[in-house]
């Protein structure tokens, strides 16, 4: 059955792999499932056809036959359940990997996104200079804890799993902040994720969309 995901027609990150379709692309690449991508504009994302797939008008979505899903945690979990390679076979190890998926999304991602969004939401306020260090310290609390749990391990709990896939991409959202660099073991962990062939294929496919877009803009200017 064909798998179709949605992604930004014009990703605000210009193809740096920070948009959340990257999670789904990487998961599909890890398990060797081909997929199609439907690109949507910001306008289309808020229109009824897309809202029927995603109640919050966001990307990515995932369609496979009669099934339509939204929320990257649920999508990656679905892919991992139905294909080998992203979750351990052993019941307890699987439960622990799922726990880490939730931890990445519910415990580590929120302060990272809060810090990132603050610039867009209140970046022009006179008190922003005082707020930012507070938000950064909230991120550091989680990074301290994560770094101390990860220690010298390669992955969060034994072999690479869907939890690492999500955690690596959550941590990548800190790019440019300098925060990740304060934690050498977390930086190496992210680099290990980025070195995986499936990651590289997923990254290249989302970058190709941005490059195509840039090519079209250049052609328009000429
Ligand atoms: N919790 C959702 C977040 C989805 C999300 O924030 N998507 C962003 C792109 S990375 C989006 O569509 N932003 C545009 C908007 O919210 O209007 C998930 O993990 O799928």
UniProtKB/TrEMBL annotation:
Coiled-coil portions: none
Pfam families: GST_N
Keywords from the UniProt entry: Transferase
Domain GST C-terminal: 90-222
Domain (GST N-terminal): residue spans on this chain: 8-87
Any one GO molecular-function label of the UniProt entry: transferase activity
Gene3D superfamilies according to UniProt: 1.20.1050.10, Glutaredoxin
PANTHER family hit by this protein: GLUTATHIONE S-TRANSFERASE GSTA, GLUTATHIONE S-TRANSFERASE-RELATED
Protein name as it appears in the record: Glutathione S-transferase
Organism this protein belongs to: Pelagibacterium halotolerans (strain DSM 22347 / JCM 15775 / CGMCC 1.7692 / B2)
Organism ancestry: Bacteria, Pseudomonadati, Pseudomonadota, Alphaproteobacteria, Hyphomicrobiales
